């Protein structure tokens, strides 16, 4: 790994905030998925026990609604994934922490979620100092107040978040929810970022190629303008 590239990234407070917030959301998703899966199974079993005639293929047709606190967290997640520069301010991060705390207050009786929030809170309030053995302090963080992470740990966190961002762009392009020009702009921003960070670029080549291929597929139908003549059709 190129330590100078890592140091440069972590010296940018807004980028570090973006990575911290994104990582916290992925941690939150991980702990909620297990809880939600168990609750759905328990609910389904209870429903079948109360109404056995429904059968295993029965579906629920009633709509579901997110709580206002959940909608705030979803909005934060979208802001992180759609951030063109992959940066958020410290003010945004403090507001994000408050929204996460308010949301998780609804799950105070779930031990694994309480434990996850303790870790999230620690990450959000720390300086995220990166400990590089036998090296000077490269990222400008104060070790006395930081959470010590190795360069490989930070790289793994960055890679996970960037893969999530690229997957988001891919799904939007696949479903054509966003104009092709906007998809291209978002992709170019990520490419430019990766051109300056070789340690991350090498692990995301396949993801970028998949997006490039999909973008080209969407561009082909519009490559010929209406009424355009082929060389054979010219007089």
Features of this protein?
235 residues; mainly alpha; 2 domains; 9 helices; 0% strand; DUF4559
Structural summary, described in words:
The protein is mainly α and 235 residues long. It folds into two domains: 1-56 and 65-149, no CATH class; 151-221, no CATH class. It contains nine helices and no strands. Helix 2 (13-50) packs parallel to helix 4 (90-104), helix 3 (68-81) packs antiparallel against helix 4 (90-104) and helix 6 (151-175) runs parallel beside helix 9. It is globular and about 60 Å long.
Number of β-strand runs:
0
Helix content: 55-70%
The structure class reads mainly alpha
From the alpha-carbon coordinates, what is the Rg to the nearest angstrom?
Answer: 23 Å
β-strand amount: under 5%
By oligomeric state, this entry counts as: single chain
Low-confidence stretches: 136-145
Span of the ends, CA to CA:
60 Å
Average pLDDT score: 79
What is the overall shape?
globular
- Continuous helix count: 9
Region (Disordered): 213-235
Element layout with pairings:
Elements: H1 3-10, H2 13-50, H3 68-81, H4 90-104, H5 111-125, H6 151-175, H7 180-195, H8 198-201, H9 205-219
Helix pairs in contact: 2-4, 2-5, 2-6, 3-4, 4-5, 6-7, 6-9, 7-9
Would you summarize the structure shown here?
With 235 residues, the protein is mainly α. The protein has helices spanning 3-10, 13-50, 68-81, 90-104, 111-125, 151-175, 180-195, 198-201, 205-219.
């Amino acid at each position: 790994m190129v330590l100078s590239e890592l140091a440069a990234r972590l010296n940018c407070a807004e980028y570090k905030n973006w990575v911290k917030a994104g990582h916290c959301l992925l941690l939150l998703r991980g702990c909620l998925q297990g809880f939600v899966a168990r609750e759905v199974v328990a609910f389904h079993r209870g429903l079948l026990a109360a109404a056995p005639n429904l059968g295993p293929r029965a579906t629920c047709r009633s709509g579901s609604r997110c709580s206002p606190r959940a909608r705030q967290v979803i909005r934060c997640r979208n802001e992180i994934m759609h951030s063109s520069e992959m940066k958020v301010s410290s003010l945004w991060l403090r507001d994000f922490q408050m929204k996460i705390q308010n949301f998780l207050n609804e799950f105070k009786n779930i031990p694994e979620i309480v434990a996850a929030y303790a870790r999230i809170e620690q990450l959000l309030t720390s300086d995220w100092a990166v400990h590089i053995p036998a090296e000077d302090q490269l990222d400008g963080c104060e070790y006395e107040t930081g959470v010590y992470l190795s360069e490989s740990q930070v790289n793994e966190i960055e890679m996970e978040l960037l893969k999530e961002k690229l997957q988001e762009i891919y799904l939007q392009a696949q479903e054509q929810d966003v104009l092709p020009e906007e998809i291209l702009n978002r992709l170019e921003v990520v490419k430019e970022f990766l051109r300056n960070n070789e340690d991350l670029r090498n692990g995301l080549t396949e993801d970028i190629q998949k997006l490039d291929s999909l973008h080209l597929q969407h561009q082909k139908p519009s490559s010929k303008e209406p009424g355009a003549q082929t060389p054979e059709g010219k007089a």
